[in-house]
Amino acid sequence: MSRRKKQPAAPAPDTTLQQFASDFFRLFGAHIESGDGNPVASFDVCLTPELATHFGRERLSLCFHGVEPQAGQELVAHGSRAFDRMLAFLDRRSAFAVQRLPRRVVTGEALMGALQPLNASIQDLRVQEQTQFLFAFTWRITYRADDKRQELYTIVIDQDGTRLPQVGEPKAPANALDLNQLLADAEPVVLERNEEGHLLPPKLLALAQLATLAERARKYVIYHADLNCVNYEAEILPRLHKSLNRLTTYYQQQIEEVYDAHDPDGEKRRVLETDLNRKIAEEVENHRLRVQVELLSYLALETPTAVLEMTLSDGKSQAGVRVVQNRYNGVLRRPACYACGADVTAAALDRNGHIICAACIEQCATCQEIVCVRCGLATCPVCGKGNCDVCGHQCWACGERACAAHISRCPVCGDEVCHACQSACAHCGVLQCRGHLVADCVVPSDGVTQLVCAACAVRCPGCHQHTAQTGICAASGQRFCRNCLVTCTTCGRSMGPGFYTISPGDGQPYCHACQHDCPACGRATPAGVVCATCGAEGCPVCMPRCSYCGVAVCSAHSRVMKGCGHVVCAVHIQTCAIGHEVVCPTCNPPCAICERAHCAEHTQTCAQCGQEYCSECVRISGLCDTCATVIKHGESVEIGVLPWANHPAVAKLLPYYRWVRESNTRYTVYYGQGSMLTAAVIVVRRTAEGDQVIHTRRVGAVERLRGMLGT
After folding, report:
1. pTM of the model
2. 92-111: string of b/e by CB count within 10 Å (b at 16+)?
3. Is residue 109 in some structural domain?
4. Which pLDDT value is given to residue 390?
């Protein structure tokens, strides 16, 4: 048994035009009669006199959906004669309409309780019934490029010019306006007649105000159109690229097919290129997006409202308040908070007569008056309390507003300056601007620099710095700062600059009266020095001390080392054990392995521990005798228990190796053996303060084999 493939169901016929035509004729009082029994395909209409005059007949027979019209029938389709006649009839009637919303709220309890005063009393209470308007402006937006798109966009604003969000808009609030519901509930306005019986036009706002509202609505429409243009241009660009690519490919092929023999002067190619540029410009212009905004109609909705007007007063200031209730839906429009703009339910009156909500109330710490957040309290930079513009005073230094208790006039410049910008002189205690004070060059033991005023500060003749802490030189009688005065080591008197000498021997100051001439060099010296070898007398200049042992020696029993400039006595002058050159014992300590002196020329660095030894204690393999010994005969050790095991570099190596050690006179070398012939080295220097890690490194397998073979 064969199975037939199920055919998809045919799409339902579009009844948009039929519904539009039906609504059109019913709206204007025409009677619709069914024709052939299929109301979707056709129907007959009995016209009113007004419609009969417009259509030129009293009866119409209409058909839809591309059906072949029968005798006497007219087809209703986009662009047909019957459809255009309907649009022409609407064009004269739909530009402006006035409707009235019904009054559904009749009680006034909600209006009377809409506003609760917090710190004021109510005066001059008045309630009035008024009519206010809502305006719905409908615009037609046309987008033209290589195609054409049209959009109908409606903007609803009140008579104050405030735009009202509608249901269906992005980010619309919960209380958004439902225009369709308003139109469904609206009723026709009953027009009044004059004394002669003629109908009077409905009462609206002034024409200038209507024009202003329409212009404001137009700005919202233009903004909406600009947002849509971004998406439309993104759709146009691929089509433009496709057209330009097709043109460029075609003309490029035409240009390539022109042979040089047929176009020796290139005229044909230039003609083709010119034609290509012209067509490209035409395509770009055809794809350029143009937007046209046109006002189609506007609707005025009369809204019944109740207006409650009152005056709030606290005895010092007062302000008028207005609450409006929409009698159609009962929505209350309360006054806006002066500070935050939110609707006010519990109203407060600040000192400046502003209506504010409870969240925007601030109280001055000085006068205790209520001030709104917008007028604001300023925080005092000293005590941190808020003060209003009446109680606070602006500081000329920092610009902040300080309270009256923490601001005063500077005795130097006379400006009002807060106490945060003033400081007291450390000497006389007078409070003044910090810019008039100078830093005392003498810093006390606590390390805090003191500020002194110009009246107390003295410029020291020695260092030319300001200070209030001075003393008198015993030799000259001049006044110097405490930094420039010194105490003579011998007599204990205070001396200023130029009246004392620092001894090169002990680095102590001595006054000129406590000095005598050196018997050896004739210089003025506070104390004599005796050579430790021959007993000759001199001064610390002509008899320096040995840099190694510290004893004073004359030039005959000492030697100045080349390169470093150290003075070494004859007893401690050493010679290199290898090349017999003179060696400074201060700069060149003996070899840590053989304990012999060696010069820089006969010094070599171990390739494994990185320390310097004499060249005879470093083998051909590059390892010193200590490193070469530790590999074979090192003592096993547990590094984790040693005090320096928490060193960061050691902690990275500690758990991965088995450790042995070997020592010389200065260093202890720890050698770690790991897997895959890897190793690690830690060098520790022994000092009087304790062991110190000075070198760590990892040893690769190749380097380890090279060292083992060299030993």
Report:
1. 0.51
2. eeeeebbbbbeeebeeeeeb
3. no
4. 86
